[in-house]
Structures are given as C-alpha cells and as structure tokens.
Design brief:
The protein has five helices and no strands. The longest helix is centred in the N-terminal third of the chain and has 25 residues. The protein has two domains: 41 residues, no CATH class; 52 residues, Helicase, Ruva Protein, domain 3, CATH 1.10.8.140. With 127 residues, the chain is an all-alpha fold. It comes from Penstemon smallii.
Length: 127
C-alpha cells in the first residue's frame, strides 16, 4: 500500500484507458500479453488488499453487490482502498461499517428523476 504501488496502478489504468480509446493499437502481441499479465497482477494485488481490509461478511456483501451492480461494488472497493492508504481505516471493515459507507455513497450519488408528460395535440382539440 505504498505510494510506488499506487503510482504503478495508476499508470496501468491510464494504459488501459488509452488502449480502449484506440491510442494503443500499434502494440505488438508481446506488449499486449505483458499488459494483460500486469492487469491480472494488479487485480490480484487489489483482491489481496481487500481481503486484508474487509471481514468475511463484508466481502460477501460486496460480492453480492457486484453481482447486481459491478460498477458500484468497484467504487466501494476503491473508496475502502483509498481510505486505507490514507490511514483513515486502521482495522478491518465490518459489515455494519460497510453498510453505513454504502448509505453515504448512495446519498451522495442519488440522482433525482423527473418525469414530464406531454399531451399530444390533436386537430380536434380546442385550445
């Protein structure tokens, strides 16, 4: 959880984003294989950090969330890892604390939906 590890993860993520946008298409298969291995290694390291930071019940809850909303689970995992790296989390995150964290995230990201009904004008309608 040191800064060089974080910087390496950031650089890998930037390479992934550039590859997705088509900027990295001129790589040979050896480089692509190396990138895939680096990506898998980063994901393994991420899962190792999460297993150290979360209790078994909290990990199970995050796994259930990932089945329904993978992007939300990934966001919660990112928040937990960031908090641990900055020293805000010193002990394992319990399921209760995870629930309160999820509630905080939900209140911050809640989108208000607005439904507008427009009635079609007919030729026979009087104004």
């Amino acid at each position: 959880m040191a800064d060089p590890e974080l910087e390496a993860i950031r650089q890998r993520r930037m390479q992934e984003l550039m590859a997705q946008r088509g900027m990295g298409n001129n790589q040979n298969p050896g480089q692509q294989k190396a990138q895939e291995e680096a990506k898998m290694e980063a994901e393994e390291q991420r899962q190792l950090m999460l297993s150290q930071l979360l209790t078994a019940e909290a990990r199970a809850r995050v796994a259930r969330i990932a089945l329904v909303k993978p992007e939300k689970a990934r966001g919660v995992e990112d928040v937990i890892i960031r908090a641990a790296q900055t020293g805000q989390i010193v002990e394992k995150v319990s399921e209760d604390r995870l629930i309160s964290l999820l509630e905080q995230i939900n209140t911050q990201t809640t989108k208000e939906t607005k439904v507008t009904i427009k009635r079609r004008q007919s030729v026979l309608d009087d104004d």
